[in-house]
Amino acid sequence: MTPRTRAFLQFGTLVVVAVLLFVIFPRAAAFAEMAARELRYFWWLILLLALAVWLIWGIGRRPKK
Fold first, then answer.
1. Are 54 and 47 in contact (CB under 8 A)?
2. How far apart are CA 48 and CA 31, in angstroms?
3. What is this structure's pTM?
4. pLDDT, tens digit, 9 for 90 and up, residues 33-53
5. d(Cα 65, Cα 44) in Å, to the nearest integer?
């Protein structure tokens, strides 16, 4: 599997999980809508997304030697 294919699959998985969570938990969609309206809540959404990205791409990597 090439790195480009792997990155595409990871990004696609992230998008699918986000959509499923919005469908399963409608309050999350309401939170995202409220966050887009009020900046103080928007920062929490950005931090949660950054944490998700870090967990997906950062945790599994081996340390550089």
1. no
2. 12
3. 0.46
4. 777 777 676 777 788 888 888
5. 34
